[in-house]
Amino acid sequence: MTIEVRVPTLGESVTEATVATWFKKPGDSVAADEMLCELETDKVTVEVPSPATGKLADIVAQEGETVGVDALLANIAEAGEAGSAKPEERPSEKPAGKEPPTEGDKTYVTVPSLGESVSEATVSTWFKKVGDSVAADEMLCELETDKVSVEVPAPVAGVLSEIIAEEGSTVDASAELAVISGSNGAIEPTPKDEETAHGKQYQEPRPGGGAQDVEDAPSAKKAMAESGVSRDQVSGSGRDGRVMKEDVARAVQAAASAPAEAAAPQASAPRAPVSADDASREERVKMTRLRQTIAKRLKDSQNTAAMLTTYNEVDMGEVMELRSQYKDEFEKKHGVRLGFMSFFTKACCHALKEVPEVNAEIDGTDIVYKNFVHMGVAAGTPTGLVVPVIRDADSMSFAEIEKAIAEKGRRARDGKLSMAEMQGGTFTLSNGGVYGSLMSSPILNPPQSGILGMHKIQQRPMVVNGEIVARPMMYLALSYDHRIVDGKGAVTFLVRVKEALEDPRRLLMDL
């Protein structure tokens, strides 16, 4: 009996995913609930367990393919039945698809299936050049869509006689990419081709370690593109030096601990004339489609809302003194450290009750007021910024808030957050101070109407009771949607947060 392995539910409004990594290959024994593969959506990673004990009979969706919810990923033969078929009778590991178009001894390489709602892609890299010998299933090029990278294998063995779509060109879902010719698509393979054709990756030493032709995990490629880490900076821990997602995370962490070079500011306006001497020392790299999409969506956020930012400053002395006095006792009783985030969460929940429009959203011509606070807490991870949501934060204690933030932070760093955990927020906290930011203007997280930016605590001279004294000060920045929040409401909200933090006893008295 054969048992099907299908794509599980991916979360609300998520309809497709990319097969990132297979942990098993056809013929391997698997136990019930053992992890078979890993899927990636726009924001989370989903592990697919085995539904039964047996052997992996075949893989239907290969790494890099885009699949929909409930799509067939693989088949498992129950214990006692797997392996009974003769090798030549085993199901093909190639995904089913149409035969490549041919003309005489020419075979046309076409764009593979890009997934639902994806109609075009960009040719990012050619791994072969015209005149090179290629083996069947050897990688020819890589395409980039808005969300995923798609590798294009050679449909037959032969010689790459023509490249139709050059690097950087945009192609639709049915376009022809190249032409393979030679002996009706079959040529005498070189030793390198023979190894590839028999499933062995041909390897040459790579300066940074690993093998030159070993294909890295799609999840690792995505992480490298998002974090800006080059392949030479990453040491692969997978089979034959293959780079995995965790390797990229380690490389990003190592780079962050090293002295950072000052980055040149990005120009949004047309470039000024550049001298020939300067041009020879520049390097131009095309933005990935993923980065282009991120840029577009961030700009859309600014264009959609009438976003405005108001600022204030808060004396953190009382909070720091209270935290210093009770932090040991707090950790001993509750098993979690007392940080600043619980104070800010409590202060914001208190202020949102007085200024409910900051906790509301616009739906068409209606304003939807929320009688609860689902607090989004922005968290930096090796692959980018995520915003897990602490639900019903207004009804939680300091200890419950600190525990929830710590748990969500760990899951975010490990890439284990589900889509549900990042949806439904009504207001957001963003703490740029942990990176040393003294002042910034946070961007709204639509459809929310407010986001509070926290910053670095710094000793500054302040006038207290007619005397100049050094006080631990923090700048606060509230970005808000002026379509729903008036200036008076925004300033009132920020003042209430300031008052609660400068006298934390007000939170206990509900003042």
Automatic annotation (TrEMBL):
<keyword id="KW-0450">Lipoyl</keyword>
<dbReference type="Pfam" id="PF00198">
    <property type="entry name" value="2-oxoacid_dh"/>
</dbReference>
<comment type="similarity">
    <text>Belongs to the 2-oxoacid dehydrogenase family.</text>
</comment>
<feature type="domain" description="Lipoyl-binding">
    <location>
        <begin position="106"/>
        <end position="181"/>
    </location>
</feature>
<feature type="region of interest" description="Disordered">
    <location>
        <begin position="80"/>
        <end position="109"/>
    </location>
</feature>
<dbReference type="Pfam" id="PF00364">
    <property type="entry name" value="Biotin_lipoyl"/>
</dbReference>
<dbReference type="GO" id="GO:0045252">
    <property type="term" value="C:oxoglutarate dehydrogenase complex"/>
</dbReference>
<feature type="compositionally biased region" description="Low complexity">
    <location>
        <begin position="256"/>
        <end position="276"/>
    </location>
</feature>
<keyword id="KW-0816">Tricarboxylic acid cycle</keyword>
<protein>
    <recommendedName>
        <fullName>Dihydrolipoyllysine-residue succinyltransferase component of 2-oxoglutarate dehydrogenase complex</fullName>
        <ecNumber>2.3.1.61</ecNumber>
    </recommendedName>
</protein>
<dbReference type="GO" id="GO:0033512">
    <property type="term" value="P:L-lysine catabolic process to acetyl-CoA via saccharopine"/>
</dbReference>
<feature type="compositionally biased region" description="Basic and acidic residues">
    <location>
        <begin position="190"/>
        <end position="203"/>
    </location>
</feature>
<feature type="region of interest" description="Disordered">
    <location>
        <begin position="256"/>
        <end position="284"/>
    </location>
</feature>
<keyword id="KW-0012">Acyltransferase</keyword>
<dbReference type="Pfam" id="PF02817">
    <property type="entry name" value="E3_binding"/>
</dbReference>
<dbReference type="GO" id="GO:0006099">
    <property type="term" value="P:tricarboxylic acid cycle"/>
</dbReference>
<keyword id="KW-0808">Transferase</keyword>
<dbReference type="InterPro" id="IPR000089">
    <property type="entry name" value="Biotin_lipoyl"/>
</dbReference>
<dbReference type="InterPro" id="IPR050537">
    <property type="entry name" value="2-oxoacid_dehydrogenase"/>
</dbReference>
<dbReference type="InterPro" id="IPR004167">
    <property type="entry name" value="PSBD"/>
</dbReference>
<comment type="function">
    <text>E2 component of the 2-oxoglutarate dehydrogenase (OGDH) complex which catalyzes the second step in the conversion of 2-oxoglutarate to succinyl-CoA and CO(2).</text>
</comment>
<dbReference type="InterPro" id="IPR036625">
    <property type="entry name" value="E3-bd_dom_sf"/>
</dbReference>
<feature type="domain" description="Lipoyl-binding">
    <location>
        <begin position="2"/>
        <end position="77"/>
    </location>
</feature>
<comment type="subunit">
    <text>Forms a 24-polypeptide structural core with octahedral symmetry. Part of the 2-oxoglutarate dehydrogenase (OGDH) complex composed of E1 (2-oxoglutarate dehydrogenase), E2 (dihydrolipoamide succinyltransferase) and E3 (dihydrolipoamide dehydrogenase); the complex contains multiple copies of the three enzymatic components (E1, E2 and E3).</text>
</comment>
<feature type="region of interest" description="Disordered">
    <location>
        <begin position="184"/>
        <end position="242"/>
    </location>
</feature>
<dbReference type="InterPro" id="IPR006255">
    <property type="entry name" value="SucB"/>
</dbReference>
<dbReference type="GO" id="GO:0004149">
    <property type="term" value="F:dihydrolipoyllysine-residue succinyltransferase activity"/>
</dbReference>
<feature type="compositionally biased region" description="Basic and acidic residues">
    <location>
        <begin position="86"/>
        <end position="106"/>
    </location>
</feature>
<dbReference type="InterPro" id="IPR011053">
    <property type="entry name" value="Single_hybrid_motif"/>
</dbReference>
<feature type="domain" description="Peripheral subunit-binding (PSBD)">
    <location>
        <begin position="215"/>
        <end position="252"/>
    </location>
</feature>
<comment type="pathway">
    <text>Amino-acid degradation; L-lysine degradation via saccharopine pathway; glutaryl-CoA from L-lysine: step 6/6.</text>
</comment>
<dbReference type="GO" id="GO:0005829">
    <property type="term" value="C:cytosol"/>
</dbReference>
<dbReference type="InterPro" id="IPR001078">
    <property type="entry name" value="2-oxoacid_DH_actylTfrase"/>
</dbReference>
<dbReference type="InterPro" id="IPR023213">
    <property type="entry name" value="CAT-like_dom_sf"/>
</dbReference>
